[in-house]
């Protein structure tokens, strides 16, 4: 089964906890703090595997969670860092934040990597909190939580050539006779429901990948027929081969077909009209095709080259394949634009959205003040509330962020309830 769009959940590993420990060695009565730091968690990394051509595996596994770092140890020993979780994806995969729709990565080249969810750092042990005023601190940080988010994966087939045209114009037949691909061929519309890829090798030993893409109809740019399921894949092709049924056996005018398909491409993405396009007049073995071809040529300048073929009888195919190979030699690879220009040339991508607000204050219906925001939530999760010194440190951090003053401005008074995540505090003046 061909799968080209799926949503999955990714969770990077949390950092390991730092610990509170002291040196207790012989002849060292004032050994001091010796709590080690926690290890870093594992990133969730997507890596391109050119052996894949579908997102089928993501239909069966939709949750990807990296391991957390190990906790710190005595004698200042650092916990072990976790290995990244590497998830293979096919070339041509675009990764978007499912909530915001923003592009995280556009993965094209083999072995290209993108860090989709960034791991949390390890918490610091009490060895870091010793100073002249507090030589035996009982403070240690919990590990930083790893990022977690839902991501939308979209696969856009990577092929040199894309076949476009109305349903039943002979695209699948053409692919089947010029390559070893075996697409489904039948005498009804929309026989092809998914893109089919085939490797073509010319007699002079040049090769390219050709994609038979599902047929278009009028209104495809709005999702009519197979709509965007098809149009997404044409974006990656270097060359468009426009197949026209020159027999007009279905009562349509070949030139009207040609114009309709190009209008759909233009309305979906104007940049597609800048792509090099070859016109192929198929079904030339049918009665009346020669007359239709002459009328068709009248709409073009004499310099416009049109390739008459019959995919069924294989006439004219060599000339077409040589023309495709010659044209591809003049088009540099990766001429298509990635979703974001700044992602195009990077092999390892770190791309994460930042929230400039350190905290937000809202009110619940019961009158409680609700604190939220990535920075304050991260500080809260990294605080060990089992130790009084850690609690006092967290209170100082809240004052430093201006939360106390902001609560007062919102009308908070002595004894009011303040919520942060699933926990409640009492506001004290």
From TrEMBL:
<dbReference type="InterPro" id="IPR027417">
    <property type="entry name" value="P-loop_NTPase"/>
</dbReference>
<feature type="binding site">
    <location>
        <position position="172"/>
    </location>
    <ligand>
        <name>Mg(2+)</name>
    </ligand>
</feature>
<dbReference type="GO" id="GO:0000287">
    <property type="term" value="F:magnesium ion binding"/>
</dbReference>
<keyword id="KW-0378">Hydrolase</keyword>
<feature type="binding site">
    <location>
        <begin position="212"/>
        <end position="215"/>
    </location>
    <ligand>
        <name>GTP</name>
    </ligand>
</feature>
<dbReference type="Pfam" id="PF01926">
    <property type="entry name" value="MMR_HSR1"/>
</dbReference>
<dbReference type="GO" id="GO:0003924">
    <property type="term" value="F:GTPase activity"/>
</dbReference>
<dbReference type="InterPro" id="IPR006169">
    <property type="entry name" value="GTP1_OBG_dom"/>
</dbReference>
<keyword id="KW-0963">Cytoplasm</keyword>
<dbReference type="InterPro" id="IPR031167">
    <property type="entry name" value="G_OBG"/>
</dbReference>
<feature type="domain" description="OBG-type G">
    <location>
        <begin position="159"/>
        <end position="329"/>
    </location>
</feature>
<dbReference type="InterPro" id="IPR015349">
    <property type="entry name" value="OCT_dom"/>
</dbReference>
<dbReference type="InterPro" id="IPR006073">
    <property type="entry name" value="GTP-bd"/>
</dbReference>
<feature type="binding site">
    <location>
        <begin position="190"/>
        <end position="194"/>
    </location>
    <ligand>
        <name>GTP</name>
    </ligand>
</feature>
<feature type="domain" description="Obg">
    <location>
        <begin position="1"/>
        <end position="158"/>
    </location>
</feature>
<feature type="binding site">
    <location>
        <position position="192"/>
    </location>
    <ligand>
        <name>Mg(2+)</name>
    </ligand>
</feature>
<feature type="binding site">
    <location>
        <begin position="310"/>
        <end position="312"/>
    </location>
    <ligand>
        <name>GTP</name>
    </ligand>
</feature>
<dbReference type="InterPro" id="IPR014100">
    <property type="entry name" value="GTP-bd_Obg/CgtA"/>
</dbReference>
<comment type="function">
    <text>An essential GTPase which binds GTP, GDP and possibly (p)ppGpp with moderate affinity, with high nucleotide exchange rates and a fairly low GTP hydrolysis rate. Plays a role in control of the cell cycle, stress response, ribosome biogenesis and in those bacteria that undergo differentiation, in morphogenesis control.</text>
</comment>
<keyword id="KW-0479">Metal-binding</keyword>
<keyword id="KW-0342">GTP-binding</keyword>
<feature type="binding site">
    <location>
        <begin position="165"/>
        <end position="172"/>
    </location>
    <ligand>
        <name>GTP</name>
    </ligand>
</feature>
<dbReference type="GO" id="GO:0005525">
    <property type="term" value="F:GTP binding"/>
</dbReference>
<protein>
    <recommendedName>
        <fullName>GTPase Obg</fullName>
        <ecNumber>3.6.5.-</ecNumber>
    </recommendedName>
</protein>
<feature type="binding site">
    <location>
        <begin position="282"/>
        <end position="285"/>
    </location>
    <ligand>
        <name>GTP</name>
    </ligand>
</feature>
<comment type="subunit">
    <text>Monomer.</text>
</comment>
<feature type="domain" description="OCT">
    <location>
        <begin position="351"/>
        <end position="429"/>
    </location>
</feature>
<dbReference type="Pfam" id="PF09269">
    <property type="entry name" value="DUF1967"/>
</dbReference>
<dbReference type="GO" id="GO:0042254">
    <property type="term" value="P:ribosome biogenesis"/>
</dbReference>
<dbReference type="InterPro" id="IPR045086">
    <property type="entry name" value="OBG_GTPase"/>
</dbReference>
<comment type="similarity">
    <text>Belongs to the TRAFAC class OBG-HflX-like GTPase superfamily. OBG GTPase family.</text>
</comment>
<dbReference type="InterPro" id="IPR036346">
    <property type="entry name" value="GTP-bd_prot_GTP1/OBG_C_sf"/>
</dbReference>
<keyword id="KW-0460">Magnesium</keyword>
<dbReference type="InterPro" id="IPR005225">
    <property type="entry name" value="Small_GTP-bd"/>
</dbReference>
<dbReference type="GO" id="GO:0005737">
    <property type="term" value="C:cytoplasm"/>
</dbReference>
<keyword id="KW-0547">Nucleotide-binding</keyword>
<dbReference type="InterPro" id="IPR036726">
    <property type="entry name" value="GTP1_OBG_dom_sf"/>
</dbReference>
<dbReference type="InterPro" id="IPR006074">
    <property type="entry name" value="GTP1-OBG_CS"/>
</dbReference>
<dbReference type="Pfam" id="PF01018">
    <property type="entry name" value="GTP1_OBG"/>
</dbReference>
């Amino acid at each position: 089964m061909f799968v080209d769009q799926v949503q999955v959940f990714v969770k990077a590993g949390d950092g390991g906890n730092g610990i509170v420990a002291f040196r207790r060695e012989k002849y060292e009565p004032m050994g001091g703090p010796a709590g080690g730091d926690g290890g870093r968690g594992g990133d969730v990394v997507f890596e391109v595997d050119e052996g894949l051509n579908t997102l089928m595996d993501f239909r069966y596994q939709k949750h990807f969670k990296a391991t957390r770092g190990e906790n710190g140890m005595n004698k200042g020993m650092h916990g072990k860092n976790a290995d990244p979780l590497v998830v293979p994806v096919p070339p041509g995969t675009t990764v978007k934040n499912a909530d915001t729709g923003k592009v995280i990565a556009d993965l094209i080249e083999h072995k290209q990597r993108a860090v989709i969810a960034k791991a949390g750092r390890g918490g610091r042990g009490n060895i870091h909190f010793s100073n002249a005023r507090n030589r035996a601190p009982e403070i240690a940080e919990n590990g930083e939580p790893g990022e977690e988010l839902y991501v939308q994966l979209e696969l856009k087939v990577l092929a040199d050539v894309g076949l476009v045209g109305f349903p039943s114009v002979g695209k699948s037949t053409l692919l089947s006779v010029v390559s070893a691909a075996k697409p489904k061929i039948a005498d009804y519309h929309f026989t092809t429901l998914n893109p089919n890829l085939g490797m073509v090798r010319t007699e002079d030993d040049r090769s390219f990948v050709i994609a038979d893409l599902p047929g278009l109809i009028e209104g495809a740019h709005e999702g009519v027929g197979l709509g965007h399921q098809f149009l997404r894949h044409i974006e990656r092709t270097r060359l468009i081969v426009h197949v026209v049924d020159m027999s007009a056996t279905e009562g349509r005018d070949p030139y009207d077909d040609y114009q309709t398909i190009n209008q759909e491409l233009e309305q979906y993405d104007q940049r597609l009209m800048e792509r090099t396009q070859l016109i192929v007049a198929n079904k030339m073995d049918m009665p009346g095709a020669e007359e239709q071809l002459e009328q068709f040529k009248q709409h073009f300048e004499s310099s416009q080259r049109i390739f008459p073929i019959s995919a069924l009888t294989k006439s004219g195919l060599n000339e077409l394949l040589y023309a495709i190979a010659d044209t591809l030699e003049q088009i540099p690879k990766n001429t298509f634009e990635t979703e974001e220009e700044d992602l195009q040339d990077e092999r390892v991508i770190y791309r994460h959205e930042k929230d400039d607000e350190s905290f937000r204050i809202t009110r619940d219906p019961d009158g409680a003040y609700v604190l939220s925001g990535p920075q304050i939530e991260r500080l809260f999760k990294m605080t060990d509330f089992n130790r009084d010194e850690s609690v006092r440190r967290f209170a100082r951090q809240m004052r430093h962020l201006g939360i106390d003053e902001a609560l007062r401005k919102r009308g908070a008074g002595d004894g009011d309830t303040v919520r942060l995540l699933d926990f409640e505090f009492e506001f004290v003046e």
